[in-house]
Design goal:
The chain is of the alpha+beta class. Strand 9 (144-146) and strand 10 form a beta hairpin. It has 16 helices and 15 strands. The strands form 4 sheets. Strands 2, 3, 6, 7 and 8 form a 5-stranded antiparallel β-sheet that branches. A 5-stranded mixed β-sheet has the order 10-9-14-13-11. The protein folds into 2 domains: 1-118 and 414-558, Immunoglobulin-like, CATH 2.60.40.10; 120-385, Glycosyltransferase, CATH 1.50.10.10. The relative contact order is 0.14. The chain is 38% helix and 10% strand. It has helices at residues 107-119, 128-131, 169-185, 187-191, 206-220, 257-274, 279-298, 322-336, 339-349, 370-379, 387-410, 426-444, 447-460, 485-489, 511-516, 541-556; strands at residues 35-38, 44-49, 54-59, 61-66, 71-77, 85-91, 94-95, 99-101, 144-146, 152-153, 167-168, 228-229, 231-233, 251-252, 255-256. The protein is globular, with a radius of gyration of 23 Å. Bound molecules: ligand 9MR and zinc ion (ZN). Ligand 9MR binds at residues 161-162, 164, 166, 314-315, 424-425, 534, 538, 540.
Amino acid sequence: MLTMYNKKKEKKYGGNSPYEIFVDQTGYFTESRKTAVIPFESDIFAIRDENGDKYFEGKVTYFGHDDCSDDDIYIADFSDLKRPGSYRVTSNGKTSALFHIGDTVYNRLLHDTSKAFYFMRCGMALEERYAGEFAHGRCHCDEAELLAEGGYTKLTGGWHDAGDYGRYVTTGACTCAHLLYAFKLFPDIFSKLELDIPESSSGFPDILSECRYELEWLLKMQRDDGAAYHKATTMRHASFIMPERDNEQMYVFTISSSATADLCAVCALAASVFVHYDEEFAKRLTRASLRAYNWLEEHPEFIGFYNPSGCDTGLYSEESDIDNRYWAAGELYSLTGEKRFHDAFLSLSASPYFDGKTFIKLSLGYGHVGGFGSLAYMVADREDRNAAVAGGIKDLFVKEAYWLRDKCLKNGYGSTLEDYEYYWGSNMALMHNGIKLILAKMLTGKREFYDCALEQMHVLLGRNAIGISYVTGYGEYRSVHPHYRPAIADGVENCVPGLVIGGPNRELSDPYAKEIVPGGTPPMKCYADDERCYSLNEVAIYWNSSAVFLLAGIEALK
Ligand code: 9MR
Ligand code: ZN
């Protein structure tokens, strides 16, 4: 599948961490809880700055054995060190990577994880002025062939999905939903976030301009009758080349009901945000949403997506569209207040599909989108909202958060993930748990939920069983060989900063991962910083947007 393996860059950080003590390499707030993990027996630890001057000393405590990593975990708690600065933890002659203490330690990270979408843009040249050394030419502008209907269409724009150059409606919708909900809940964070993109200084918050780039493409993916095409990709994944060199025929694949419902939902959500900035655009979004909804009503049956033979690009198949329809009805009710959508939402909410699977009502992923529908109903400013249903949703979120809090506190690394959750893109699950904890903090005012949300960020940024930071450009020991075609092909030594890596995957779902990671490796260590390992080391728009959502909450509720 990956024919050309272009290995221009030296491996700088491949293999095991040169550090033995694990910290969040981006850092800790002055007043927050600060812990490092020491995965070996030890008594005391010290915190020193780069000159070796000691600023803190403490006793190490034994936490216990951790099954996900198979580590015996000792904790160095230096919460009382509140002096802003850059430090290392040392113990028994061993050391951690550099980390920082200060109240702005995540500022640049929020900027870079948000700017990442600009680097994923398709259909326009990335100019040096905005992209610096990562500038490159215009890509994927030829006409795309409509597979089902025949004929050709212009389909430029949107974001590349991930390390590949495909564009998919369900993941695009989910990514925009993360960003739009983050914006709705934490507007102050984004009103001052400048991303230095071509649309900056248009009077819109930059994050909304970036979302609009994807939304305009999503609108093109809607067929005249309201249905949405599932994806636009070439027949096979490109080799490791720059996007502008990928000149294979682009196809528009068949429609699916999940893509249609997600498009319906995200357009309504976006309309509710854009109405305050650009009424014309909000109207276009609303019309698209309504057309999709009408189509869904006329087509109550689930229409799944299947790849035609010979196609190896992403499937993003789902088994049901009930949660997608639940989301669509929830957003349209929230936007318009109309009984038609309200009744549909309440009836979908009571669907037996959710019996024993209420987690789907909280899910914020591309596969299950029920969490967005629940959020839509919770934030809907409508007098006729059903108090019992709204209360039920709130209770679900809070109950989930208590469960996550307990898991976080029982885990040596502070992670909420259990062994079975180390699947493809486990860092997304980690980020989503953080978001749910942030939402619970907002719903209850309880600080402990916030603290546990922050712990999830610490895990992503290096306090994990490999001691690696899963965000490009962040930390001395970090992922530097993502499965991200431009990073492999551009000949630039650095990688675009702020890309969130999929992370450990116990299923080792690609042949290279199976070859590189020894069988029997504990789940939290099933990772390799190797660009061939797409099931461990890829980047994706919806992993990034999940981190942006969590970071925005962390900043806003600090
Ligand atoms: O994240 C997806 C994973 O759950 C699936 O098992 C896998 C196989 O279809 O696809 C993953 O998604 C990839 C998609 O197919 C193409 N774009 C990159 C995605 C992230 O790796
Ligand atoms: Zn492109």
